[in-house]
Prior knowledge:
Radius of gyration: 13 Å
CATH class: Alpha Beta
Largest sheet: 5 strands, mixed
CATH architecture: 2-Layer Sandwich
CATH superfamily: STAS domain
Strand content: 15-25%
Number of strands: 7
Structural class: alpha/beta
Number of helices: 4
Amino acid sequence: MADGSGAGRFSHLELAREHAGSGPTWVATLTDHTILDAPPLDTLRDELVRVVEAGDGLPLVIDFSRVDFLSSAMLDILGQLHRRMASGRRALRLCGLRPQIRELFKVTKLDTLFPIHADRTEALAAG
């Protein structure tokens, strides 16, 4: 992943190395419109963990702009990622949450745990 060539290696996300004001950042764009079922969720979790573990110590933005619905199991995955990223003092930001998903984050108070931005541009600028 050091060269940013994550394309083709993932089935549930697209990975790009972007440059923000503070330097390079990984952006993982989730590609599924619904994130509900166990088998795809397991694969997505494994893919995101791979990004975090091999992420060259860089911050990570997860882009939800293509996601219409997600299960609470995805919230657990995000919690796991947050712990992994925090232990390495790396930033994890979210962007592109549709209103109904943003409301889920608000109700579960996860909006206080994750910096949530309107879009990729805003999330990168915050870094």
